[in-house]
Each structure stands twice: as C-alpha cells, then as structure tokens.
Write a structure and sequence with these properties.
477 residues, alpha/beta, TIM Barrel, Rossmann fold, 3 domains, six-stranded parallel β-sheet, five-stranded parallel β-sheet
C-alpha cells in the first residue's frame, strides 16, 4: 500500500484505502473480521471506519457489534497506536436513536470509547444530518469532545446542501458530475450547467447576483461563470481558487458549511421558485417541439431520453458512457432519485456498460434490489461487446439503452468545430440487438420513436441482461 497521506486539515495521517467495518458482526463473524483486519494491517493499512449502529439491523444484534470486534482486535495488537479509527454517531439503528443533541453525542462517545477500548477516538463523525437539532448545539458538543481530548478530529456525512437552497430560496445548479444530486422536479432545481446542460441552468446562472459553489471547480467543462461574484466551499485547500480567483474561498465540509449558512440570521432572500418554474416551462416546451424532429436518419435524442425519463425506475442506478449520447442524457433526461455514474471528466469512452456491471455487483451486495441501467453509444459499447457474455453468464439484471448512429458523433462534431474535414469517424457496426440475442440476452431494435415506450418497458420487464438498440440521428442531439 502507498505511504500515508494527510487527511485534509485534521492532522491525521492515513492509508489511501480505508477499511469499512460495516460487515463486522454481520456477514463477517469475529474470526473472519479479525482475518480481514490482519490482512489490511499487513498490507500497510491503518485507516478503519465503523459506527455505533453497526450492525444493529441484524436480528439478535443491538448495535455496537462492529466497534466491539474492532476493539478486541486492537487489544491484541502491540502496534495499536498506529491505527486511525473513525466512528460515527447520530443515525438510528438497533438500540441507538437518531439525533445529534449534546446528550446524544456525549452518550455516543462514551459507548464508542468503551467498545473500542480507546481513550480517544481519532476521528468522530456526525453520521447524518439532524434537522431537529440546531447545528450550533451539535457543533458545540463536538467541540467539547475535542477540547477534552476524547476526540481528535470531527467529520460529517449525509448532510444535504439542498437545505441551504431552500433556506435562501435560491436555485440549485449542478455540474454534469453532480447530475441527480437534486431531483429535477424539485422546485429549486435548475438542472445541469455547461455543454451537457439545460438552458434553465444557463439562464439562472446568468441572472444570479452571487454563486455559492459547493465542491465544484471552475474548469472549462463545468460551465460555471468566471465573472460572477462567488463563494467557493471545498474541504480540499488546493481546490480553492485553483482555476481562477474567487471572491470568498471557504475551507470546510460542504454539508456543515451549507447548514451554517442556512441557519445564519438574514439568510433568506427572494424566493426564486417562480423563476425556476417559468424557465422549466420554456425548456419543456422546446423539448416537446424537438420530439417532432425527424430527418429520416434515425430517432432524435430528445425522444429517446423523454421515453427513458418516463420509464426509468425512480431509484435506479444509471451508468452513462462518453460521447454525444452522454451529453444528450445530461440535457434531456430528467432525474428523480436515480444515482448517475459517469467517467470522471468524460474522458473514458467505453465506461458505461462495465460500470453498470460493477453497479449490478454492488446492488447484489447491498441487497437494495435497485435496478441498474446503462446508456451508451455504439462507439463506446463496441469496445466491450464481449462483456455482454459475462453479463449473461452471471444473469446480470442490466437494462441497456444503446444509441446507434454508426459513427463517433462527438469526434465528428469536434472536427467540424475545428474547421477540419471529418475524418475516420464512421463505424461498421453489427446489429446490436441481434448480437445480444446471440449472446443469450434479450434484444430489440427501435427505428421509430413511436416504438420507444414499448421497447424500454419490455426491456425493464426482463430479468437478466436486456438491450434496446435505438437507431439515432447523429445530428439531433
């Protein structure tokens, strides 16, 4: 394992991999847990994560089992002081109620210290936001623990920045990587910024007096305006002002900072829900108009993603690829509570289907039963065609919507933008739906927008891998 690295500004030095203790006392008994911990330590790891509620959801358990197992393991280690143990308080589970009042936090640390066999917890997290308790009370309680030497550093998880927007009455815009963090139906959601985004987001940003930028950079692809006054919040000091100077850089956890701002006196401004609704009405009317576009060269992206918006399960995991299909997804698909997976800065063509396979494996492990979808182009999926046989072999329940325009459409567009001749971007593709059937999966080809709803609904009804191949117009993106 690589050498230790600094964990933010906490003063802690941790291994690049953190070992999660969620399964200790659940799917891993004490002997198995000790074996995993030993292997992690032998590989140079020192960062271990747990929580007071782990694993209180198992019949017969009451919470605290994971901490107790880690504590007994630490007790047998002569090098126990080299380990950085993080635990959490505040989420309901087993015998522990939800809450981040001072009393909850004090009781939580006492129990965790006892189970872990420690005099001091190196890193103590608020496990999730507690809207019923003033943040000032929560922060004061954590501060007491640090001052008393019972906790080394504090952290937060599962805090929602949308609460700040609701307190301010301000619209929420996301970068493409943040798509899905707020449902598009939320009255303050403005959609995605940038080239893959909506005119709703662009208009709202251009009309803004101030941008509060949470965890996003000002790189070109984000579409964040460089000329607007901005407060940039990030827990990484190197990210603050990295691409350009910002009006007010703030080093801090996004969730905690957002809640502090929301609770600050005079935080509320003019409620902009009406403006947001008006811009969405204009954009949805334009999307409806684009549904009628038909140049005889395939189905439009507007039609494809309108159908997918209607049929995608509300809590699905959707893995998207790289290319015009992905930009169109960002622009036209309206998110509910779906989780969107994408390749970093959209630089890894072929990401979509393998990512969906990984998501399927994760869904099996967590037992959530969430559906997994993949959205790719022909160019991306063409690089990983044989993986479909793996999906069939393991009966992976993945619904794949493939846009086939017989070319690397994004590369063609970039060549035209650079005033070059379009060169070597056409593709010779197999009939993907038939290929899926040959592999043992379900497949259907769509050449008419009127058949989209039936095809996607039928694919989602399948158990095991299914593929909807849509012959798409390369220009109607």
């Amino acid at each position: 394992m690589q050498r230790l690295r600094a964990l933010g500004a906490s003063g802690l030095q941790v291994s690049p991999l953190c070992l999660g203790g969620n399964v200790f006392g659940w799917s891993a008994d004490e002997d198995a847990s000790f074996a995993v911990l030993d292997a992690f330590a032998d590989a140079g790891g020192n960062f271990i994560d747990t929580a007071n509620i782990y694993s209180g959801w198992i019949p017969g358990n009451q919470g605290g089992e994971s901490e107790a197992i880690i504590g007994r393991w630490l007790a047998g280690r002569p090098d126990r002081d080299r380990f950085v143990v993080a635990t959490k308080v505040g989420m309901a589970g087993g015998r522990f109620p939800k809450g981040l009042t001072r009393d909850h936090i004090r009781a939580g640390i006492d129990g965790s210290l006892e189970r872990l066999g420690l005099d001091r917890v190196p890193l103590y997290f608020a496990h999730e936001d507690d809207p019923a308790t003033p943040l000032a009370e929560t922060m004061a309680a954590f501060d007491e623990l640090v001052r008393e030497g019972l906790v080394g550093a504090v952290g937060a998880s599962n805090y929602d920045a949308v609460r700040l927007a609701e307190a301010l009455g301000a619209p929420v815009l996301t970068t493409f990587k943040g798509k899905g963090l707020i449902p598009d139906a939320h009255p303050l959601a403005g959609g995605v910024l940038g080239r893959s985004g909506t005119p709703v987001a662009s208009w709202l940003m251009n009309e803004a007096d101030l941008l509060v930028v949470l965890g996003a950079s000002f790189a070109d692809h984000t579409g964040i305006s460089p000329y607007k006054p901005a407060i940039q919040v990030d827990r990484n000091p190197l990210a603050l002002g990295r691409f350009q100077a910002v009006t007010v850089p703030v080093l801090g956890d996004i969730g905690v900072t957002a809640r502090l701002l929301a609770e600050a006196p005079g935080a509320a401004g003019d409620d902009q829900r009406a403006d947001v609704a008006d811009r969405w009405a204009i954009w949805r009317a334009e999307k409806a108009r684009r549904l009628a576009d038909d140049r005889g060269r395939g189905v439009s992206s507007a039609a494809i993603f309108a159908a997918l918006t209607r049929h995608a399960p509300e809590d699905a995991v959707i893995a998207v690829d790289v290319g015009n299909n992905t930009y169109s997804f960002g622009r036209y698909f309206e998110c509910g509570r779906q989780t969107i997976l994408m390749s970093g800065y959209l630089g890894s063509i072929g990401f979509g289907f393998p990512a969906a396979m990984g998501a399927w494996a994760a869904v099996q492990a967590d037992g959530s039963g969430r559906r997994v979808l993949a959205v790719t182009g022909d160019g991306g999926f063409g690089q990983y065609l044989a993986e479909l046989t793996t999906a069939v072999r393991h009966d992976m329940d993945i619904t794949h919507v493939l846009l086939n325009n017989s070319q690397l459409g994004k590369i063609s567009k970039e060549q035209r933008a650079g005033r070059w001749d379009v060169w070597q971007t056409t593709l010779h593709n197999p009939p993907f739906a038939e290929y899926a059937q040959l592999c043992g999966a379900w497949g259907r080809r769509v050449t008419d927008a009127r058949d989209l709803d039936d095809a996607i609904a039928a694919a989602l009804d399948q158990r095991g891998p299914s593929l909807v191949e849509v012959i798409s117009d390369p220009d109607l993106v």
